[in-house]
Fold:
Amino acid sequence: MSKKIFSGVQPSGNLHLGNYLGAIKNFVELQNEKNTECVYCIVDLHAITVKQDPKELRKNIKETLAAFIASGLNEKKSIIFNQSSVPAHSEGAWILSCVARMGWLNRMTQFKEKAGKDKEKASVGLYAYPVLMASDILLYDSTHVPVGNDQKQHLELCRDIAQRFNNDFEAPNFLKVPEPLIQKSFSRIMSLKDGTKKMSKSDPSDLSRINLTDDKDKIINKIKKAKTDTLPMPSSEENLENRPEVKNLLEIYSSLLNQSVEKSKIEFSGKNFSDFKEKLFNLLVEKIEPISREIKKLLDNEKYLDEILLKGSEKANEIASKKILEIKKIIGF
Ligand code: TYM
Structure:
């Protein structure tokens, strides 16, 4: 059976190593698998759940697209488009919000984190955001959704919504219940300054993350300044739960090389941090700097980027508009 892949990334600026290792690197690997159809979406409707400057948003949509292409996505192999250009996503979100239950959404931990203490002031969109995500996924009959661990709960909600729709409207198997694809070697890439916080585009400190647009000097500087501890590198058997920064750096190193953390531990067991950091920044420069250079080059070619989105949107529209029509028929419109 062929796999249908769908995933999305918000165009909110500062795409970072967490987005790359947690998601985009897997997008590229899946794109190159046999019998696999991939749809990758720049989720601009999700971005406006928090305040955006229109000029910045426009720029960030292009930058996210450039990061996709620079990382190895190919518009001839995958459908690449931006969410707001396919109206079925918003229509589907409304319909599915009448299927989803308040109690389900109230459990979403990301809303609690993002809304913070003053949740009365959060937008309704931020609360309903996982329903839009379900619409994205379900419109394409997606079988698999590659995401970072922080999106796992949203995927479970999507599965619940699909099952509830199929039951309520007596349409067995109509909405396909997707499987999450979450890589196993780490759960999240964490901040370089605090190993207990996830690496995030909204962290005020730029030193907390490696951006996909960072040049060689920035990458080296950020790894040199990354927090560690006073002990030597761990022995191969050491449990790293109490050394979150060290665990994170070893996981970054291992996933860049597609090797197990166990193997990396053996490589550096008992050595100095400076040796390890040097290997790590050299590896990061080797993998990330070409992406960074390519992003800058692509951003100078706006016409090319616009064309990719236009063609991608046409293809996405063809699939999604058919599915939304079927959905409307089923519910009695
Ligand atoms: P977003 O834009 O926050 O993140 C994009 C992808 O990057 C992953 N990610 C991470 N992985 C590991 N470590 C980190 N520190 C880290 N930070 C981010 C995220 O898990 C995600 O896979 N709601 C989604 C976008 C979305 C979507 C969808 C995803 C909208 N519709 C449909 C899948 C299917 C989001 O805000 O991701």
